[in-house]
Write a structure and sequence with these properties.
The protein is α+β, with helices and mostly antiparallel strands and 147 residues long. 16% of the residues lie in helices and 39% in strands. The strands form two sheets. Strands 6-3-2-1-9 form a five-stranded antiparallel beta sheet, with no helix packed on it. Strands 5-4-7-8 form a four-stranded antiparallel beta sheet, covered by helices on one side. The radius of gyration is 20 Å and the shape is globular. The chain starts with a helix and ends with a strand.
């Protein structure tokens, strides 16, 4: 019985170590964007809010995201991840999050080019939601790399 307990005491700490082994395919950077009216250009008077959580998978050059939102002025007419387009437009619509958006949670994924991935990692991407009342953008927020 003592031998069994001693073995258990040696094995249990090793099990916890497994959670610290890194993914052999490399890290998956995570991003977050807090969408608000104050982040729009120009700012709006919307009460809307949103949060985007995203993960970039470098080995597949894919970004996956989940968008949560609420209190918008009306239905979304257009939502997208935006960033530099490589020809001078710093806020180009890169990844559409297309309507109809029938719930306040949307998920999606998109394969990036090498340049898009570099801009994402450099903090040059944001998320914007447009509605009928605010066709130029109701809420917006930068995608920020999480520590």
């Amino acid at each position: 019985m003592r031998f069994a307990i001693a073995c258990l005491l040696l094995i249990l700490p090793l099990g916890g170590c497994m959670s610290y082994v890194s993914d052999p395919r490399g890290p998956k950077p995570e991003f977050k964007a807090a969408l608000s009216a104050a982040n729009e250009t120009p700012p709006t008077d919307s009460q809307g809010y949103g949060v985007v959580e995203a993960r970039y998978m470098p080995t597949m050059q894919t970004i996956e995201w989940r968008l949560h939102f609420g209190k918008l002025s009306g239905p979304i007419i257009y939502a997208f991840l935006q960033g530099p387009d490589g020809v001078g437009n710093e806020r180009a619509d890169i990844v559409p999050i297309n309507p109809p958006i029938e719930s306040n949670v949307q998920r999606g994924s998109y394969t990036l080019t090498a340049g898009q991935a570099a801009d994402l990692m450099a903090g040059r991407w944001s998320v914007e939601i447009r509605t009928e009342r605010y066709p130029a953008g109701e809420i917006r927020g930068p995608l920020v790399l999480q520590p």
